[in-house]
Amino acid sequence: MPTAKLRHLAFTARDAVGLAHFYRDQFGMRIFHTDPDGSQFLTDGVINLAIIQQALDGDVPTGFNHFGFHVDDVDTVAKNLVDAGLPEPAVRHTTRPFAEYRAIDPEGNWFDLSAHGYLPPGEQE
Fold first, then answer.
1. CATH superfamily, domain at 5-114
2. Where are the domains of the chain?
3. Model pLDDT for residues 87-112, shown as the tens digit of each residue
4. Where does the source fall among the domains of life (predicted)?
5. Cα–Cα–Cα angle for 110, 113, 114, nearest 5°?
6. Torsion-angle region of 29 (φ positive above 0: left; ψ -120 to 50: alpha; else: beta)
7. 103 near 111, Cβ under 8 Å?
8. Burial, 80: exposed, middle or buried (Cβ in 10 Å; 0-12, 13-18, 19+)?
9. What is the mean pLDDT of residues 36-49?
């Protein structure tokens, strides 16, 4: 089995723009996408860091939210997860150009699966 590559981390923040600017200014990460709600997406050229704007009417707390794997074949990984007794990964309905599927591990942690990766379009591995 090919090794999946951890390429995406996501945090929920009270001030997504301010936190993105912190990582940009302190660590040289590049902001490459902003959602209408203010969520920010940064990269160091290998890892994509999503900083999700916390919604006042939402029930998602601040802090770690999910991670994502870049895999060779989502269908094979999905089948293996189901064979292991986990729910089938769900299609992520989003306009973002990455993270095609959302899955869950045995402890209930969310993770994304992507066959094309998490870097900005045109910068894929």
1. 2,3-Dihydroxybiphenyl 1,2-Dioxygenase, domain 1 (3.10.180.10)
2. 5-114
3. 999 998 776 666 789 998 877 888 88
4. Bacteria
5. 145
6. beta
7. yes
8. exposed
9. 93
